Amino acid sequence: MKLVVFLLVILTFVVLALAIGLWTLARQVGILFERISPMGALVNDSGPEVGQRTPEFSLPSLTGGQAVIGPKSLRSTLVFFLSPTCPICKKLLPILDSVRKSEGQWLDVILASDGEDGQHKRFIENARLSSYPYVVSAELGLAYRVARLPYAVLFDEHGIIRAKGLINSREQFDSLFNAFEMKVGSIQAYLDDRAVAQY
């Protein structure tokens, strides 16, 4: 009988110790999450700034027709800069397709790159991109000062740039749309302003 009571006491202490350990671990995870909060698209300071009007272009698309970059009645535009040799760009294509399907009521997606047309035509065929406007223009990349890929610029129906940045993940893609909806320059700027306001 004494042995059973002794074992119950020990088990009670073990359960309490585990509960305290779990609570401490959960608290540390919460603190860690606050310290490394999700970052949005990585915004560079070059090129047209958020809030400025986009440079306007009308460019021939390798998939047919003209791709208009500028104000459009009731339509916002996402210009996604990519390269056939960029592995991250290829990884993001299914995400881009999902974005276009879910946001298609108000958003046009244009793919942009530079280089030789032949390489891009093979890429369009292999990656099944024939339903996208696909432009090859060094001038377009220079206008936005695109230095690294993949890069995206999101502007509204008036041609005003609402979000832009280097994109490496679904979260960074989503951050462009979050910044657009929240009417902030970027999620980074929003998080920095909140951090300053808290201290």
TrEMBL record:
Lineage start: Bacteria, Pseudomonadati, Pseudomonadota, Alphaproteobacteria, Acetobacterales
Thioredoxin domain: residues covered: 48-185
Gene3D superfamilies: Glutaredoxin
The protein's role, per its UniProt record: May be required for disulfide bond formation in some proteins.
Classification via PROSITE patterns: THIOREDOXIN_2
SUPFAM superfamilies: Thioredoxin-like (SSF52833)
InterPro entries, A to Z: Thioredoxin-like_fold, Thioredoxin-like_sf, Thioredoxin_domain
Protein name stated in the entry: Redoxin domain-containing protein
